[in-house]
Amino acid sequence: MGDKQLIISISREFGTYGHHIAAMVAEDLGINLYDRALLDEIAEENGIDAKHLEKYDERPKIPIISRKVRGHSNSMEDALFHMQSEFLKKKADSGESFVVVGRCAESVLKGREGLITIFILGDELTKLQDVKKKFNLSDKEALKKMRRHDLKRKAYHNRHSAVKWGDSRGYDLCINDSKLGIEKTVELIERYIEERTRG
Amino acid sequence: MLTAQILAVLIFVTMFVLVVMDKIERHIVTLACGLMTLVLVFGVGMQSMSAVMETLNLRSIFTVGFWYSVGAEESTAGINWATIIFIAGMMVMVEGMAEAGFFRWLCMKLAKMVNYKPVPLFVVFMIMSAVLSMFIDSITVILFLAAVTVELAKLLKLNPVPMILAEIFCANLGGSATMCGDPPNIIIGTSLGYSFADFVMNTGVIAGISLIVILVYFYIVYRKALIPKDGKVIDPATMPNPKEAIKSKKDLAISVIIFAVAIVLLVTHAMTHLTVAFIGAVVAVATLLTAGKDAIMLLKKVDYKTLVFFIGLFMVVGGLEQTGVLEVIAEWIGNVSGGNYKVMIAIIIWISAVASAFVDNIPFAATMIPVIKSLAATTGADLSVLAWGLSMGTDIGGSATPIGASANVVGTAVAAKNGYPIGWGKYCKTAAPATIIVILISMAVIFVRYF
After folding, report:
1. Which residues numbered 79-98 in A keep a CB inside 8 Å of some CB on B?
2. Own/partner pairs for A178-186, CB < 8 Å, 24+ apart?
């Protein structure tokens, strides 16, 4: 991929293999993966317990228990979003190449040279089967879980981004991983990255 | 009239819910609801053009009494332009002070004076927060103080959260001491015709006693957190120099002079008969004239959204007032208290405190003013005592939760942005008992002094 900085932002629907795919791309490219684990780095930097932050990760703020005054929000979810955004910007400023899962990275890092934004979606039925198997749930429970998580991700994303979550106009590449499977999806993404970084 | 009353209540409830939901910016909510009040309540429900004119209240600005008032003069119903002009004027002055580096310089100077020792620093910052908030809006005070606290705490290897929480509480407490310290007090003062001195002699006394108790309280609960992590003694030479905060010595001197003039004008306004609207206009004009080419920039920094929020809010409350809904609430309080003034005061303080802990205290205070006016008129209760109860309840009640007052939101937001998130549990653990202590002190002082 050369010496050029590469920032791959991967957003995903719940029940897809988005996270797994992001990890494989990061491994193949030999670059860091920033996902939920970036909470550990933020917590360590600020001397906070990471467990304390987890419950606010990638969640929309609860309006009744927080307020905004002159642009200052005291929502814990907004605070964590701010900390994660600052962390990602710092990493991007340092010239480091990395893959980041979720966290509105495609909006936070918008305009950076080397940013490639990807959205991974999946067929409802395939996602349902995978969620059922992974969490040992009934059809109804799995569907409920998928809906709940996607709603939260959507609300979280749309609060911090001008582009709607999953809207193809907001991403460079949108892929249905149910059609190709994990390996082929990774291959496709890596081929796309290669084309983008050529020359 | 019933249709108008129902519409007024519906619009008011919608406004409150939308403000709490925080989906739409609150100034848009109040302005839209205010316009709906004019059209639906006054136009469709009451079919009264005079109600519209009274609520818009524009004529009052062009009267001499608006700028120069001999004797206590109560403002008419509707938009309280005196509050808006005063707040706008103070905003311009505060922007000028901030631009000159006054707040950061003051924080750093005081920190240096106490040799950056954690306990004296903790006490000095609490007192400074209370004193500054007596004259300047607590948002600005906390915005600067919390930022400097985080910066110093990092260098001193301390957790800044206890200090920030104590500063927030003291900002709200200091704000309750004067007429211009907290928006509910400005609205109460201008609506009911009380002076700066009236507030200082009444709520100021309560706030002063409470501050002493609260200093001891916060020291006891946070004394362990004030011990530096590595126990090292800090060399003051390694700390930031207060002079570095000053952007221009000349601008700093001018802003301090204007600030001093504002304080003198406020303290003496009952004697000079200059109204707060006049004082607000004078400090704004003085700041802008001395700012030179920076005047435009200062004007751009004024928080117009808050001013629009106030205008919309007064229109919605005007709807409740004109339709007589607030008289019904006053009647209810009068009935529940059975004509017992002590019970009446207790109801006002505690309802105001509990409500202000969860909803913005500004709309609450604006709504309650006509209520206590009506209560005093119908039951013969002393309006000023009800006003002090309302003031302490709304100003202090807001301290109990992270969303109760603007200073709490800004303080916790600054802490969070710097990597110190403060949740409800952490906030309320110390702030809620402190709020209850001050509310009890307020009740005790009011009962002992006025009954």
Report:
1. 79-80, 82-83
2. A178/A16, A178/A122, A178/A123, A178/A126, A178/A127, A179/A123, A182/A17, A182/A20, A182/A21, A182/A24, A185/A17, A185/A21, A185/A120, A186/A21, A186/A24, A186/A25, A186/A28
